[in-house]
Amino acid sequence: MVRSAVRVVLRTRPTSKFAEDCIKMNSDNRSIVLSMPKREGLGVVNHQQESYNFKFDSVQHNVGQEKMFETCGEEMVRNVLDGYNVTLLAYGQTGAGKTYTMTGGKYTQASYSQRGLVPRTISDLFNMIKAKTNTAVTVRISYAEIYNENIYDLLDPSTQPTDLVVHEDAKGGVQVKGLCYRPVASEEDALGLLFEGESNRAIGEHQLNKASSRSHTIFSLSLESRDGVEGQERVLLSKLHLVDLAGSERLSKTKSEGSVAKEAQYINKSLSFLEQVIIALGDKSRDHIPYRSSKLTHMLKDSLGGNCKTIMIANIWGESAQLEETLSTCKFAQRMTRVANDATVNFRQDAEMLVKKYEREIRELKQELAMHDSFSSRSGVSYDKYSEGQRVELRSMVKIFLEETVGIPDSVDPLEMTSLRHMKEILFQCRHLYQERPAPIGTEWALIGHDICECMDDQWLQVDLECHTLKRTRAMISPEAREEITGVGAAEDVAEKHAVGDAEGEELSMPCAPADARPEGDMQSYTPRSDASGLPHELPELSVPKTPAAQSVPPPSKTDAYENYKVGPGAELFNVGQTSMSTFLGVEPQMGADGEQIDSEGAEKEIQGTRE
Predict the structure, then answer these.
(1) Is 211 left (phi over 0), alpha (psi -120 to 50) or beta?
(2) HSE, side-chain direction, 13 A CA sphere, residue 132
(3) Residue 275: closest CA among 296, 306, 252
(4) I need a surface site. Which of 124, 262, 314, 509 has the fewest CB within 10 A?
(5) What backbone phi and psi angles, to 5 degrees, belong to 91?
(6) What digits encode the pLDDT tens for the residues 508-550?
(7) Are 153 and 179 spatial neighbours (Cβ–Cβ below 8 Å)?
(8) DSSP secondary structure letter of residue 528
(9) Cβ contacts of residue 133 below 8 Å, gap of 6+?
(10) Which residues pair with 90 in a beta bridge?
(11) What is the pTM of this model?
(12) d(C-alpha 410, C-alpha 595), whole Å
């Protein structure tokens, strides 16, 4: 991206009455000093500014058309061939020489030396295209006119103004929908369209100009360039806009009436909106730029502060009677120098040509690999995409290698990696075989309590059919219990008999059968036939009571649990305890009586003697 200010060139109209006392050109040819005499009738106190200094990029005083093209046109043509959008516009008062600067006047065909910037640009453009033998350039031309705030197609007068609409594309570029673009192959074709459009242009007459332009015109050349050296898939897209603005008018000087006066009103109005846009662009604090105020500013949106390199030629009429208009033109040109554009090279990738380029590069790389293999004495290496038959053959080789005999590590030779594609295909086949692997043999399922469980590594995993997870039980099952479970019998009793610890479990992120797959009926131990998913094809009939969570039975109290234990599993232990307690209560009185008869003192002496 190239950020650059609008380039402004000041050109004076040649005249024998040039006001040398009021307009002084500096020796650097870049600045002028404009002296304005005070207007009479303003009274004794008159604070009117008398001197103005203006600085531009170049000042061209009394120069010919060839010099103007060298100053503005040559660089402009080079930029548009490099892929940049370029705009050249002429601004000034009526009669200052804008149309003469751009086209050379009405009768350009009769005077070759008086050609303007537009025909010279066309000629230079096609000469540069011919010099680029390795570049294919397509040129299309359009010619639009803005007359009384309506857009007309000068190359197709039958098009109605209502059919021409200014709109912006996805990238913010401005285009006129409905405007025809004529392809041209030579300089003669382009000049023919220029003269055709000039013949359809609106021209009027007033006291200051007998052939005054009554409209703004935009002559556009759209280029598509393909460089055969760097690769034709990259297409440069650029536009060259040559704008001839209608001149501002003072009705008090032109004495215009009727339709000419109405045209002047539209011209001055559009130029006022253009100046508002320039002022807004020069103010960094402004967020909104009123491009849509007029058709002219909307069409020039790219040229003013957008993706474009812009050059403005400010034409002045250097006579004493035109000093006020000259001052106004210089002020506008000074504001224009504060406008900065962000120009970028415009290109797009041709998808069809890009595919051809990649195919060519692939062929070259394959040739390079084949040459490298020949130098390395490698043969039979293929870098093409594997066919289905080759994949099946490679899959069988991978399967043989993976099913190598245990304990004999060198029974099968390792697979040789011949290329990167070969290595990728081997990995793909390993993944394919892994996905098709059978489930572990001997997977066991049983009903423990009211839960379906799976035995894995001597540990039972509870299948939670509602949330599709497994719960690892903390009850470790002994091998004897496994034998009883896998046999015919009550799996619930065996599991409770051999379980140690709390039966509650923790959830695991393991897939299992969905809730609607819970079979009904009495379930016994089951060793299923497994498929690739590791789950049984079907479960035996079992009867599982379904108790909703909202109707779950609360656990019994400690007292009730103790009473149930005494009459249930703990009945035998409870009876032994009762018998022991009765025996102890029966011998306790006899033990008390015998104790009273014992001579404690004699016993103490006997004990002491025993110790000695």
Answers:
(1) beta
(2) 17
(3) 296
(4) 509
(5) -130, 150
(6) 444 444 445 444 544 444 444 444 444 444 444 444 444 444 4
(7) yes
(8) P
(9) none
(10) 244, 313
(11) 0.61
(12) 87
